[in-house]
Amino acid sequence: SSILRPTILSVLRNEDLKEMLESNKESLKLEAMKRVVGLIAKGKNASELFPAVVKNVANKNIELKKLVYVYLVRYAEEQQDLALLSISTFQRALKDPNQFIRASALRVLSSIRVPIIVPIMMLAIKESAADMSPYVRKTSAHAIQKLYSLDPDQKEQLIEVIEKLLKDKSTLVAGSVVMAFEEVCPDRIDLIHKNYRKLCNLLVDVEEWGQVVIISMLTRYARTQFISPWKEGAMFDENNEKAFYDSESEEKKDQMEAKTYIMDPDHRLLLRNTKPLLQSRNTAVVMSVAQLYWHLAPKHEVTIVTKSLVRLLRSHREVQYIVLQNIATMSIQRKGMFEPFMKSFYVRSTDSTHIKTLKLEILTNLANEANISTILREFQTYVKSQDKAFAAATIQAIGRCATNISEVTDTCLNGLVLLLSNRDETVVAESVVVIKKLLQTQPTQHSEIIKHMAKLFDNITVPMARASILWLMGEYCERVPKIAPDVLRKMAKTFTAEEDIVKLQIVNLAAKLYLTNSKQTKLLTQYILNLGKYDQNYDIRDRTRFIRQLIVPSEKSGALNKYARRILLAPKPAPVLESAFKDRDRYQLGTLSHSLNTKASGYQELSDWPAVAPDQSVRNVEVIEPVRNLPSSPTSYHRYNSYMPDSTSGSESEEESSEESEKTSSDSGKSSSGSEQESSSESESQQKKKKKTKKAPQKKSKPAAADRYSEIPPVRWTLRASFFFPVNLACPDVTTPSFGPVKTYELLHHMTGKGLSAKYHFPRQPCLYQPSMVAVQVVLTNSSDHSLEEIHIGDRNPASLNLHCFNTIERLEPEASVTVSMGIDFSDSTQAANFQLCTKDDQFSVSIQPAVGELFMPITMTEQDFSKEQGKLLGMNETSETIAMATANTSSQAISKQVLSVANVGVVSSTQNDIHRFAGRTVSSGALVLVSLEMKESSSALLTINTEKSVMASMLLRDLKQALAQA
Amino acid sequence: MIHSLFLVNASGDIFLEKHWKSVVSRSVCDYFFEAQERATEPENVPPVIPTPHHYLISVLRHRIYFVAVIQSEVPPLFVIEFLHRVVDTFQDYFGVCTEAAIKDNVVVVYELLEEMLDNGFPLATESNILKELIKPPTILRTMVNTITGSTNVGEQLPTGQLSVVPWRRTGVKYTNNEAYFDVVEEIDAIIDKSGSTITAEIQGVIDACVKLTGMPDLTLSFMNPRLLDDVSFHPCVRFKRWEAERILSFIPPDGNFRLLSYHVSSQNLVAIPVYVKHNISFREGSSQGRFDLTLGPKQTMGKAVESVLVSSQLPRGVLNANLNPSQGTYTFDPVTKMLTWDVGKINPQKLPSLKGTMSLQAGASKPDENPTINIQLKIQQMAISGLKVNRLDMYGEKYKPFKGIKYMTKAGKFQVRT
Questions:
Q1: Which ipTM value was assigned to this complex?
Q2: Where in the cell is it found (chain B) (predicted)?
């Protein structure tokens, strides 16, 4: 009975609802309808009230009427006959003089899914599409989709309506009709031609949701109508130019094409008119513009979307998720787009797991020779994360970095080996798996690591990790001839207790050892094969049978036996560690399909650019409207086009005249255009604003190279061995001030270099190769018309110069450039490093002369330590001078900026406002360099430098003096 | 586009459903519940979930999942942005967006959802238009409605929807004309264990509360507009004017709205307002760990640092924390391992500290990682980037409005790694 009671109650309650609905009192009816809507909201069935509700469809009370509409739309499909009773009410309302009543009648009528009224709906849509009110026409565009889903046979007639509405010039209609177009006839791009330019021009004034739909449709349109703005062959992939240059003849042809490419003005129009929408508050609009640029803009223009996409990362978690997915896809092909914003992808402990994983993916995509040390240091933090799934993902990411950037492969491998002694099982297991892959890609001598893993083997319990170690043993059994048989012996003991995946690898190991070292392992192998023969798992039984036939010679085994060794111990291709987002760009960015990486229903393919541009004249509109002299239309606010009333297209003039009945709308239009005029006349009598007078120090923002700095954070100099990357990154606490090149210097001009030009800059990162070296990045460009081969570093002068060369560049194609890293030990002197830059045929003498400031590394220290150290470096070791300061340089931020632009030192936080301190060490010998600047009156200051290196001190003093005197 | 909407609470009950096309059975949410069960944290439910016939796109706000049912290809951000707009609207109408508030106002909620989408495509999402269509509930109106049976549906028609400025309702009248602007900046930073800044940036917004009669046309200019590196505008802002003169020119919506969001150019050094001295350590083989935290002001330009709240997720092995705050109160939740310390105001003469011991599970090994410290704080009367509003002028109306501006700096995602 307890189960029955609620149903009885609800029946009872519905009974009283019925009475209320049928009463004469308006308030009772309303009360009843509110309760009914409450039932619908909870998903309860209220269909038996239909007859009582439908009677109120013509009620005068607006709220009651609206609630009845809600009910009707919900239940009409189930109660078709009764629903028909209401139709005449709507038909009458469709003729109402008030546009809102007409619109609302059409909205409800078209939402009633009763097939029998399809002809009525069709008629209503056709009439409303020609309505004077744009609001009613908008509603009719929505109704088209509803009718289409109710009865797809109406398609042809509906397309006619769409065609008509596409010509509509109201911003109100544009979004809705394009939506209808996308649902009903997305393949009829011929309908768009004549409306293309109008849509582009209206776009900025369309409401935000409509913008998204229009932009996505226009992206598809443009890909069918314009030719590619991308140089052929360069395609999407900036990192992979090789493929294209392979065939000489094609190259010439393509270059010809590239040179004669002129962008269709209509193509340009679309790019220009969508750009301002990157500033939209609506994240969907920003994303849709970003994808439009990605798919349509010339390569060098795509970068303008970067900042806006990064901005979206501040938004809600779900927005971040989608935006990060898209950035992940983009960053594979265009590292350069997002590299300056690398820090925006640093993981925070509060990020949710899927956000963390995506950020990791992007960081890995962005890793290159120049930033890898920064990224690895960041990864080092992630490996220690409490979120073990994330730590495991980080290990995989390290593996990917190690394979992609050969400079750090060994460093990463050593780091991963250290992780093998981690306490967490997932971390260990993941490390083993990644090490296995790395060793495979690096078939050099790594027996030490394999031995180490064999030692750890007993403590590792994760099956995948155990299997991986066994596979390694087998594959490289000849490198560890003593250990491998012993491992097999142990495994023979535990075989039956192992997981299936481990058993398979035991059989594998046994087979390989049998082939290479049958003397020691023959019996063991046979024992294991016997165990496998009776295993419960048929995969293992199959594998055992197969292996036995393959390796043990018998009369049945035949010819295959001879090849056993070549089959089992064949050199295996290394696994490719690549991004999960590698092929995602086959889907249009920003789509659901891209997000899911599978084709969603209704997904429209983005076509390839046509080889030859289709007829451009199809977009010409015959009648050029008399535009300029008409007053601007009331439906455009000139948000983007202009703030001057008469400089817009004003193409909506017709509409204004068609709106005679809508008094309110034209009224408001006048008032606003009136206000625009007043604004200019009133501008002289501007009112003073009440505001607080306290002034904050103003920051200067000028485009000098020094401004490229973010901040040089204070850093503690600890030479303790790093937990993770002990070998090459011995000074992990030296943080990197900025990513971008600071100042670029010429190394070799292309005239002297016979087409080879080289530029260099100091990235101010700790050098990967040796801590005593200064890192230098060199950009080599081939400006000649033939490819240059074997670019390398030749003789150096002085001969003792300690220099880490970059790897020889086998081939540099014309127009191509490549960035390489070098390390130079300048021995704390500004003496130039001279060396020869060689190609296959030529040698060029070049020299790098460092500014003294580049020979330092920033360190952190407390104010107290600073004073203490300063006290030790007096007398001979102190250089000081009173200098003149430019007035602009008196704020502490300006001072820091100037000092940091000159020298790679760290800021020491100070309690005294008038003294600024900076600390560093020389790169080569590690001598302390302490800079202090004491402000005096009348824009002068006492600059003191304390260091043992007095020559460097005087040079640094000279440079700083000059910088601080400059405005 | 959007077929149906289901609201799901933290315990996995559907407490509201709305369909814009034919009804989709609520059993479609089973796929969502599955994902919810798999996720360790509520935030870990994937925002996009494919099912055999539909796609579920959801957002989580105020511990309610708003699950939209999609049938075919649509930009996921379109749906996500819309769902957030729905939540914002509810918050605007009911003050809070909780399950209770939604259930209490179910009729208004339904009326709103009905106006916001037509056949799954957004129709009216501007708060000013919606408020003309459906009046927000107030205590007084609810009482009057119950007694007289009158309605909360606007008698007027939504003329704003057709006007030049669809975001502003017409016929606005106030006796006191006022315009307030709040410049709020947030510092996002990651500080590493040695106190160096790994990354730091400033994001800001200007929120406005404008109560002005008629159709005022406002211009707002800055002393130092070049600070603003990347901006996004409310649709009312004239873009060209900004491009040309770096002036915000707009006819404002009536009431509260976000005029501008901006990002301060990363070329400027970011002032870090507080520093943290920490010593959190665990020893191998000991069941105790040391916890020692001191906060101090760093670059605050002489302003007080207030409403400081420190929180940290301690390692799983920590059973309890026995700490002694020099000021404020702290709590430790032994289940979630979340340590929260409500510090209040930082007094530069007497730095707040939290010291003591953590007890670890006996026999458990030393935790690998030290916890990250999250800091929240407020600094009044200062925008940390130095952004200053120069002046605000009004055209188009004759009266003299009262104009006010307020600056505030907050910590955004401010983390210190230990």
A1: 0.92
A2: Golgi apparatus; Cytoplasmic vesicle membrane
